[in-house]
What we know:
CATH topology of the largest domain in chain A: Uridine Diphospho-n-acetylenolpyruvylglucosamine Reductase, domain 3
Radius of gyration of chain B: 16 Å
CATH superfamily of the largest domain in chain B: Beta-grasp domain
Order of helices and strands of chain B: EEHEEEHHHH
Distance between the termini of chain B: 55 Å
CATH class of the largest domain in chain A: Alpha Beta
Largest sheet of chain B: 5 strands, mixed
Low-confidence stretches of chain A: none
Number of domains of chain B: 2
Number of helices of chain B: 5
Number of strands of chain B: 5
Largest sheet of chain A: 5 strands, antiparallel
Oligomer: heterodimer
CATH architecture of the largest domain in chain A: 2-Layer Sandwich
Distance between the termini of chain A: 54 Å
CATH topology of the largest domain in chain B: Ubiquitin-like (UB roll)
Number of domains of chain A: 3
CATH class of the largest domain in chain B: Alpha Beta
Mean pLDDT of chain A: 93
Amino acid sequence: MSSFKFYKPDNMEDLLKVKEELGGRALILAGGTNLLIYIKEGSIREGTLVDIKSLKELKGISGDNGYIEIGAGVTIAEILESPLLNDRVPFFTDTLKNFANPLVRNMASLGGNIADASPIGDTIPSLLVLNGRIKAACLKGERSVPLDRLFKGPGESNLKPDEVIRTVQFSIPERGKGTFIKLGLRNGTSCSVTSVAVWLAAEDGRVEDIRIAFGGVAPIPLRLKKTESLFKGEKLDEEKIRALSGEIDKEISPITDVRGSAEYRKQVSVRLLSRAVRICMGMEE
Amino acid sequence: MSNRELYDIALTVNDQEVKGRVKAETTLLDFLRDNNFYEVKKGCDKGDCGACTVIMDGKSTLSCITSVLQAQGSKIYTVKSLGTWDKLHSLQQAFVDYEAVQCGFCTPGMLMTAKALLEKNDHPSREEIREAISGNLCRCTGYKKIVDAIEAVSKGVRK
Lengths: 285, 159
């Protein structure tokens, strides 16, 4: 029989103490949009729900010299409504416009989407191309973990049992343009089949810097560094973009599930990458 | 069941205080229905359909994936807070006038999402209305009449 307890910490220290004491049995409850479903499905059968929804230390969005820090408890709707983020990094706010649906966005937190460690977490590809990091806190202190080293497999991260995500940070690249394309089975209330984020800086059509990240093509959200290195220094035209995008085959390992087959995901990923690069190059709307 | 821990909960629903003892994982939806607020519908029970939408502290919220203990002290409004049979709320009247209701199951959630939208943005575009209700699924009317009804209220038009 399932058995749960409920605890609402008063402050960060209190939260970290509970995490220290209970480890993985302390189930962090922010928006609940994943956790309560896991409990209903029976995939989590016991533990203490630790309510962090109104914890001030996990709120807040700040920006300084192109460096952005977002509290893990900030909701997707709060990110979308943030004047600072819309002004400074519209690429990131645009990314979240197709996150689930407006009701879920009112509830779901940024930290929760990351901690869930889903291969199709919709906040993650964009944060990967922004070289995002998290600050993981425990009673002993804090450490900074790059997002591309956080994930181990579906639902598994390198967070230790006594750690919580406190904030998410990234630096806005000085040059270039980013885009995010999410392919779902429909536009609203949809899980990604595959998603891609690209950040690209080019001079006279030649790639100076490119960062590519995919969701839904591997056990974890993935930075495609090999493909990036193929693009770097290349002068891009339609044909070149198509050819180089075809090279992602070697770096991705999608699976077949209810939303699409592995073969479909491979083919559509090539097309998505081409389109994202063309958008960044101003060759397509 | 004797070893199960129960917790006190108190919140207001449609400006009435409601109290109870709940399990840690009890959802707001189950709590509301257990307290006879049957107007809040249980559809998918996993946050996909929007039938259970209520307004919690000013925000449209999926009650099926909200822990009721997180709603401690909150102000919850269900569709019954809108109008009465004799005096329908303008949104309810518009849903009738524009035939935006067929089977009616999605309507309580749809109306609450529409109410939260209009409180935030009293003149939304059709696109903004479509976006706002994108988490409320209707399997009957095809949305056009629902959008028509919400738009009519926002423009103060009566059919």
